[in-house]
Amino acid sequence: MIEQKGFLNRQPVFMQLTILVFLVFACTFIFTIASMMLVGPLYGIDGADTLILKATENPDALKGNRNEVNAIKLIQLFSTIGTFLIPALIFGFTKGMGSDYLKLKTKTSLLMVVLGMATIFLSAPLVNEIYNLNKMANPEWFGSFGKGFLESEKKNALLTGLFLFMPKAQDFMINIFVIALLPAIAEELFFRGVIQQLFKEWFKNIHVAVWSTAMLFSFIHLDFYGFIPRVFLGALLGYLFVWGNSLWVNIGAHFINNASQVVMVYLFQSGITSYDAQQDESMPWYITIIFSLLMIGLLIIVYLKRVIEKEPEPQIIPDNIFPDNNYG
C-alpha cells in the first residue's frame, strides 16, 4: 500500500514534535479554562484553583464533601482530554491524512486484546517488586530536582488517595471512567499512537523508540519512587503496540492495569477483601515468579502471532512523484 505524504510528514521529526507540544499546551489551556468555568454552575463552587490547592494540602477535609471531590474529578477529566486525547487525535489524523496512523482501524482479534490485558495483569507482582526496589533510591542523590520530583509525588499521592475514597458504588463507577477508561484511551493514543511512532521515525530503531517513550511516559506522571516500575510498564505497553499492531490491544491492557487498582481498593474499602492495594504489600515470592513466567510466555505468544501474521507496512512516497494535473 502506498500513502502520499501530508503536511506533517514533509516536516522534520523535531518540527513535528514542536507542533505536537504546541497542541498540548493550547488544548490543555483551553480545557483547563473550560473546566474552571463549568465547576461553578455544575457544583456551585467558586475558585476552582483554591479547591485544587485544598485537595493537595488537606485532602481529608474534602472526603466528607463528595460534591467538591466530584468537581476535582471533572477538572481531572478535562485535563486528561486536553493534555493527551485531543492533541493526539488532531496530530494523528492530520499526519495520517486518511490512513490508519494511530492504528485504531487496524483489524485485531479478540484473542490479541485478551492476551495484552492478561500480560499487563500478570506483570503486577513484578512491577510491585520493582517499585519496592525503586524506593531504595534517595531523592537527595539528584539534588533539588529529586526533591522537587518527590514533592510533586507526595501531592499526587494525596490527590489519588482522595479520588480512591469510594464510600458508594457511584464513586466506584465514576473512578472506573475517570481513572481507568479515559486515561487508558488518551494516554495510549498520545504515548504509543503518536510519541512512540515519532521516536521510531527519529531514532530509526524500534527498541530505542519503545524505551524512550516509556521513560517520557513515566516522567510525565511525576512519581519519583514509581519512576522505574512505570518505565517497565511503559516498555511492556510499547512492545504490545509493536507486536499487537493495534492501539486497541494497548487500550485494553492499560485499562485493565488502571481498573484492577480501582477494583482492589474498592473491594478492600467495602470489606470484601483484606488485601490493601494502597499499602504496596508484596505478593509471596512464588506468586511473583509464577506470574512473571506466565507474563513472559504471553509476550512470546503475542510476538510469534505478530510475526506470523505480519503485513507489510505502508510505503510513504513524496508528493513530487505525482505529476501535476494541469488541464488548462
Core attributes:
single chain; mainly alpha; two-stranded parallel ribbon; 2 strands; 2% strand; globular; disordered C terminus
Quick overview:
By secondary structure, this protein is an all-alpha fold. It contains eleven helices and two strands; from the N terminus they run βαααααααααααβ.
Notes on the structure:
This protein is mainly α and 328 residues long. The chain has one domain. It contains 11 helices and 2 strands. It has helices at 13-43, 48-57, 66-96, 110-122, 124-134, 143-163, 169-203, 206-220, 227-244, 247-269, 285-309, and strands at 2-4, 315-317. Strands 1-2 form a two-stranded parallel sheet. α1 (13-43) runs antiparallel to α3 (66-96), α5 packs antiparallel against α9 (227-244) and α7 (169-203) packs antiparallel against α8 (206-220). The protein starts with a strand and ends in an 11-residue tail after the last strand. The relative contact order is 0.14.
In total, the number of domains comes to 1
What is the structural class? mainly alpha
- Could you list the spans in which at least 5 consecutive residues all have pLDDT below 50? 314-328
Strand order, main sheet: write it out: 1-2
| Biggest β-sheet strands, sense, barrel | 2 strands, parallel
What is the C-alpha radius of gyration, as a whole number of Å? Answer: 21 Å
Question: How would you spell out the order of helices and strands?
Answer: EHHHHHHHHHHHE
Determine the N-to-C terminus distance: 31 Å
- Overall 3D form: globular
Helix content: over 70%
Approximately what portion of the residues adopt beta-strand conformation? under 5%
**Counting H and I runs of at least 4 residues, what is the number of helices?**
11
Mean pLDDT: 86
**Total strand segments:** 2
